[in-house]
Amino acid sequence: MARKGEQFAGLTVALVTPFRNGDVDEAALRKLVDWHVEMGTNCVCPCGTTGESPTLSHDEHERVIALVCEQAAGRIKVMAGTGSNSTREAIRLTARAEESGADGALMVAPYYNKPMQDGFYQHFKAVAEAVDLPIVLYNIPGRTAKNMEPDTICKLAELKTIVAIKEATGSLDQASQILNGSNLTLLSGDDSLTLPLMSVGGSGVVSVAGNIVPKDVLAMIAAWREGNIAQAQKMHHKLFPLCRDMLGLATNPIPLKGAMQLLGRDTGEVRLPLTPLSEGDMTKLRQTLKTYGLLSS
């Protein structure tokens, strides 16, 4: 049986939001979209956690999504981050993303207010009934403080426009339950778990590492799809130390933006309450990038 949401299989990159002197750097954001088109990235996701959505104003949030859709111009898919812990706000953001031409919406489970399982269901149902845009659920209890249970997710999968899930619980059991009980496309929410999740039926990843090494993530996914397990494993073990060492330094996207700064692709600027890497951690990050082969010695 074909899965809903197959249009989002492969590599979706959770885009950073470039800042310069405190403001969104629109020219740099346009360049990022163009670069991902050149790299062959399947889809970009503006205004997720990696895009520092919690510190974007409502106007900035809508502007970033609209700008990415405009620059994508049909050359690459756009999965707009439109989640909120307010159902009304989630509906508004998703409707605006649809108006802007997004191909889908990535919607994080409501955070902080810790709804009951029926609250999760009613929240996403309300958005699905208000907007026609395909919805990708995003379950990341490490950030939201509460897990959306597999039974809730499988019930949501019965709704026409809920087509996929970004699974970031770190649990292969939970992923297997979702795949067994629904026809959702399942995407990894952790770069280091992409290959393990594909082995049980996942279809790709919403990636942080894809901001700097999209071709390598694409190569791993392609090798798995072609049945070249040894090559997929080789790429997994190439990517793993980069993801572990880079993302282990600080909360995402702090080290990612540091890496992009070192590679000359971002100012490295983050917004409070996030703070840049210390000098010592930047030295460690530089070594990680050298070891991977991204920076010359």
Please provide the ordered H/E string of secondary-structure elements. EEEHEHEHEHEHHEHEHEHHHH
CATH topology name: TIM Barrel
CATH superfamily placement: Aldolase class I
Largest sheet: number of strands, sense, barrel closure = 8 strands, parallel, barrel
Rounded to an integer, what's the Rg over CA atoms? Answer: 18 Å
The pLDDT mean sits at 97
Number of strands: 10
In the sheet with the most strands, the strands line up as 1-4-5-6-7-8-9-10
Structurally, how many domains make up the residues? Answer: 1
Binned strand content:
5-15%
Count of individual helical segments: 12
Q: End-to-end distance, in Å?
A: 50 Å
Going by helix content, strand content and strand pairing, the class is alpha/beta
CATH architecture: Alpha-Beta Barrel
CATH secondary-structure class: Alpha Beta
Helix content: 40-55%
Poorly predicted tracts of residues: none
Shape: globular
Notable characteristics:
12 helices; two-stranded antiparallel sheet; cytoplasm; alpha/beta; lyase; EC 4.3.3.7; eight-stranded parallel beta barrel; diaminopimelate biosynthesis; TIM Barrel
Molecular structure report:
There is one protein chain. By secondary structure, the protein is α/β, with parallel strands linked by helices. It has one domain: Alpha-Beta Barrel (TIM Barrel). The protein has helices at residues 26-39, 58-72, 87-100, 117-130, 141-144, 150-156, 172-181, 194-199, 214-225, 229-247, 254-262, 279-292, and strands at 10-14, 19-20, 23-24, 43-45, 77-81, 104-108, 135-139, 162-167, 185-188, 204-207. It contains twelve helices and ten strands. 49% of the residues are buried.
